[in-house]
Design a protein that fits this description.
Helix content: 10-25%
Structural class: alpha+beta
Number of domains: 1
CATH superfamily: Calycin beta-barrel core domain
CATH architecture: Beta Barrel
CATH class: Mainly Beta
Radius of gyration: 19 Å
Shape: globular
Strand order of the largest sheet: 1-2-3-4-5-6-7-8-9-10
Number of strands: 10
Distance between the termini: 45 Å
CATH topology: Lipocalin
Largest sheet: 10 strands, antiparallel, barrel
């Protein structure tokens, strides 16, 4: 009896997950089409795959990310996955992170969390021509500062640049990794 009850619960949970996924897809499409508060972000909404990259890890990484509106379109969710190959006798690196992008007191902000235990608070701006989105982390004494830039190159292609400023040298950003991403069809 327990096995049947558990199977029914798993089946019901699966149906709820499918329904929620369909609702999210409909909400995501509506949020992009409706001219809502995230219209300036339209060039980055979707699923993306890295086509080339370079940076301090040497060999090119591979990865992908999604940027989708959350339920009701009140915020955006970016989920990122990157894999860096082994180098100089060091094992490869797998990096996963999630970023929630939201509006607070008239500003666009983002909260970042990753599998390395980093939590970063960003202030976000969109260029006047709506082709560049820049995330700049808060300044903290003795800690590095981060800047992440997405720039539209052409439809369905964007440049990604991640820079780090050394501790106690805010604003002195140096490239950590950059690359090109393509939107999945």
């Amino acid at each position: 009896m327990k096995a049947i009850s558990r199977a029914l619960w798993v089946f019901a949970a699966g149906l709820l997950a499918i329904a929620f996924g369909a609702a999210r897809a409909t909400t995501a499409q509506h949020a992009v089409d409706s001219g809502d508060a995230w219209a300036d972000w339209q060039f980055m909404i979707g699923e993306w795959t890295a086509t080339d990259s370079s940076g301090v890890h040497g060999a090119a990484s591979k990865g992908s990310f999604t940027l989708t509106p959350g339920p009701g379109g009140k915020f955006l969710v970016r989920q990122n996955h990157a894999e860096y190959p082994p180098r100089d006798g060091q094992p490869g690196i797998v990096h996963d992170d999630t970023m929630i992008i939201y509006r607070e007191h008239g500003e666009t902000r983002a909260l970042y969390d990753d599998n390395e235990g980093q939590v970063i608070h960003y202030t976000v701006s969109v260029s006047e021509d709506k082709k560049r989105i820049v995330f700049v982390s808060e300044k903290h004494e003795g800690a590095p500062q981060f800047r992440l830039t997405y720039e539209s190159l052409e439809p369905n292609t964007a440049k990604v640049l991640f820079e780090i400023a050394p501790p106690n040298k805010p604003g002195e950003f140096k490239k950590y990794v950059d690359g090109t991403v393509k939107r999945k069809a």
